[in-house]
Amino acid sequence: MGTDKSRDVAEQLSGGDMLIRALQDSGVEYIFGYPGGSALHIYDAIFRQQKVEHILVRHEQAATHMADAYARATGKPGVVLVTSGPGATNAITGIATAYMDSIPMVVISGQVPSALIGTDAFQETDMVGISRPVVKHSFLIKDCSELPAVVKKAFHIATTGRPGPVVIDVPKDTTDPDITAAYEFPRSVTLRSYNPAVRGNGRQIRKAVEILLGAKRPIIYSGGGVIQGNAAELLTSVTRTLGCPITSTLMGLGGFPGDDEQFLGMLGMHGTYEANMAMHHADAIFAVGARFDDRVTNNPGSFCPDAKIIHVDVDPASISKIIPADVPIVGQVHNVLQELQDILHLELEKQPEAIDAQAKATWWQQIRDWREAHGLDHEQRPQPGKPILPQMAVQAVYKATGGNAYVTSDVGQHQMFAAQYYKFAEPRRWINSGGLGTMGFGLPAAMGVQFAFPDATVVCITGEGSFMMNMQELSTCLQYGLPVKIVNLNNQALGMVKQWQDMQYGGRHSQSTYSDSLPDFKTLVEAFGHVGIKVERAEDLEPALTQAFSPELKNRTVFVDIWVDPEEHVYPMAIKGGSMRDMYLTKITTSQQGDYI
Amino acid sequence: MRHIIAVLLENEAGALSRVIGLFAQRNYNIESLTVAPTEDETLSRLTLTTLGDDSKIEQIIKHLYKLVEVVKVVDLSDSEHVERELLLIKVRAEGAARAEIKRTCDIFRGQVVDVTSSSYTVQLSGPSDKLDAFVRAIGKTTILEVVRSGVSGISRGDKVLSA
User: Fold this and answer.
1) Where are the alpha helices (DSSP H) in A215-332?
2) How far apart are the first and last CA of chain B?
3) pTM of the predicted model as reported, rounded to 2 decimal places
4) Within a 10 A sphere around the Cβ of A66, how many other Cβ atoms?
5) What is the 8-class DSSP label of residue B104?
6) ipTM of the modeled complex
């Protein structure tokens, strides 16, 4: 080793060793996984090396969420290793979660030996087939010599273009320690059939600038593509130059500073009044890395009637899928924004008055009026003797963490409250399952982030329903000493289901409550070796959170069980079938009353 | 509207299942599908016919392009093209009907490719509507078995679809 000559002579390695070596050569730090029969040759290869650390989870679904969140927080692909059969099927939910949110991930699944494929062998399942609709691509290994090149391709495909999960299914015979082949890790990869767009069309970008400068009521609508495409800084600078309002999707939060005056908050089903009203009344919408999801647009037929739509996305299939774009721009968000900013600056140099100051002032006045009338209340304080509102709990977490934490969440009311009230200042700090809406995501996600950033404050804002879907990972937290902080907004019910049942099913709470059978979470987490704090009174809320985030508990996993008002709903809420301006504002009022103030 | 979409894809195991899976997953319809390797053995050519308005066809083409193994996609219906489908049909051919079937077959320029004392097997190629017309002309009562290849197509003129 070390001389040029020895480098020329490729090492002979078994498939298992090649796989792990290829992961090392891909810069992998962690593999999140769970062993089993078909993967044992690979696990032996892991045992005999130190470079890549394997994290042993308690359920394969959790492994996928950890790898996924690791990728969301770092921008590097997450890696998962599971065995065949149930190991593979347990990973599917997490793969689908990553797929829906375009997260780069490489999932390696053991498979029964090639000769047994198709015989209904023990722990056999057609992983390539079962994962096909929820992966960006997949590979079935035929021969151990393919492994280095396949690993290289898998990482390339997972991380480029619109990112996504890639599965490598590895039959046991291809990792046999007795069969070796030459190990050569390819330096580069070319695939004739895979050439994702890089730069946007210059003419279209100039057209976009023209529209944005000429608009009287422009708004920027930014999505997860800004976060995944590392374009938050550029987006912020373009937004400042234009001086126009900006709103973000659930996935785009943190793409622009959440506490900034120009930021209108999240849009969509539970978006702020001012964001949804501004979208509806805009005459130009600059959609960046967003995909006009049904949770944003409400009824596409009555979506933003006056707006010219500029749509930037790396995935051509996202453009004009739901809402036709007037100016479609296919390219990496970062590159498109860079080019757009350059043109914008040139135009403004030539014509400093290009932005109509009068129109801008009128537009902002309108937005301030909306905000004033029905904006989110950021001044709610816990009142002794009154129930704890979940919104207050999120605000208290925001305060206790200085607004700087990595926040993961599960799915439901608590997720919406977190998105509304935790004002994310930076990208990659807000980590949740937006597209698939996977309950059970939050805790393993927080753990994945904590592995990536051991010293950071990582909070999982969850609900008791979601938490119980992956709470076995408390054991993994103990094993690896992960000091994640779990804030449980305990409303003793499946809150979002219950809210819909209140609003659309005459208050019939079909299968959404279980208050008489919940565990005592404090005792539960203590049994797992962690710190449990129960908060039932409003006056205890802030002290409890101060304690949870105190230096004394810095190295401990802490679970704060906050009993919140079970009657609270998430508002605003889109009125089904309406346009973006049609919202419930409280249980008894809608935006349609009083002529859309 | 009916569209004929031609796809060049890597001749690899699993590639076809991804194309078909895409159609099932996104609720697109497949009227017919035909696939075989090309002169370049690393590539297969697939032709499928589907129904949909322009925006649906645009989505289908974009999603096909997203499949890693898909090299090229073209909507043949966009421009002048030649389309052909092969029909093999086994019909009862007895008594007076025997001559009548042969005559109908000649009118459509079909060929009788197999004969028994009581049946003919006829081969016919052409655009799908010609095949439909032939099947109608033969009449349902005498048909024993029908097999159609699905549409293959190629554009007219010098235009070529290649990797």
Assistant:
1) 224-228, 232-242, 273-281, 294-297
2) 28
3) 0.95
4) 31
5) H
6) 0.92
Chain A residue with Cα closest to B58: A317
Q: Give the percent of chain A with pLDDT over 70.
A: 97
Strand partners for B46: B7, B35
Which residues in chain B are contacts of A136 at CB distance < 8 A?
Answer: 68
User: Whole-angstrom Cα distance, residue A390 to residue A495?
Assistant: 11
Q: What is the total residue count of chain A?
A: 597
Residue B101 to residue A290: CA distance in whole angstroms: 61
Helix (H) or strand (E) holding A397: helix A390-400
A496 is catalytic: yes
CB B137 within 8 A of CB B32: no
- Tokens linked to A264: 């209108």
* Residue A586, amino acid: T
Rounded Cα–Cα distance for residues A125 and A21 (Å): 26
* pLDDT band at residue B140 under the 50/70/90 scheme: low
Q: Which two tokens stand for residue B11?
A: 């001749």
Which strands make up the sheet holding A263-266, listed edge to edge? A263-266, A246-248, A218-222, A284-288, A308-313, A327-330
C-alpha distances out from residue A357 to A217, A318, A353, A360, A460, Å: 11, 34, 8, 5, 43
Q: Which residues of chain B neighbour A140 with C-beta distances below 8 Å?
A: 13-14
Tell me whether residue A523 is exposed, middle or buried, using C-beta atoms within 10 angstroms of its C-beta: 0 to 12, 13 to 18, 19 or more.
exposed
Q: Model confidence over B90-103: pLDDT tens digits?
A: 999 998 889 999 99
| SS3 state of residue A461 | strand
Comparing CB atoms, the residue among B21, B59, B71 nearest residue A317 is: B59
Below-50 pLDDT ranges, chain A: 1-6, 596-597
Strands (DSSP E) found in A375-455: 406-409, 430-431
